[in-house]
Design goal:
Layout: H1 9-28, H2 32-44, H3 49-77, H4 87-105, H5 109-124, H6 132-159
Helix pairs in contact: 1-2, 1-6, 2-3, 2-6, 3-4, 3-5, 3-6, 4-5
């Protein structure tokens, strides 16, 4: 084990971004922001602001697409008899196929994994009995909290210890 390993600037900026997401979650009284915003901010904290913006855009696009597809899957599930008794496995798997196919078709390969993750998260948390508007609310907050995490990462990456070629002029 190397105990001489130093903490880099990206690690410090990621930690600050997570702390900001935690602070915002307390201010709005919703702890879900800690997870969804925090994860988004850590993933989007790249070497340069430009790379962070690209990662953030892919993260947001994938989150929105996966969320919408998850919501549509739930709406379809409300019309399928015995959806929670096994039919959902087929419907969810086909929705994942659609997610992957369309992300690849639109040449958004970097958004594919998060699109599937959000789709699976939304559909796995639907029990087949609760109202579909709860799923829409969940998708809305999932997208909003991800967007907040991306914005936090972009601001911190741009203005706190910016990459040398991107230093903010005074």
């Amino acid at each position: 084990m190397n105990l001489n390993l130093k903490i880099g600037l990206r690690t410090i900026k990621s930690t600050i971004a997570v702390a900001v997401c935690v602070l915002i979650s307390y201010l709005i009284n919703n702890r879900d922001l800690i997870f969804f915003g925090g994860v988004a901010s850590v993933i989007c904290m790249q070497h340069t602001s430009r790379d962070s913006l690209k990662m953030g855009m892919n993260r947001c696009i994938g989150t929105v697409f996966g969320g919408m597809l998850g919501f549509v899957t739930i709406i379809l599930g409300t019309h399928v008899p015995k959806y929670s008794s096994g039919t959902d496995m087929i419907v969810i798997a086909l929705a994942a196929l659609v997610s992957i196919y369309f992300c690849n078709l639109l040449k958004m390969n970097e958004a594919t994994s998060i699109s599937c993750i959000v789709l699976l998260n939304v559909t796995a948390n639907y029990d087949g009995n609760s109202m579909a508007h709860n799923a829409l609310r969940y998708v809305f907050y999932r997208v909003l909290f991800t967007l907040i995490g991306v914005i936090v990462a972009l601001i911190i990456n741009r203005f706190i210890f910016p990459y040398k070629s991107e230093e903010v002029s005074n």
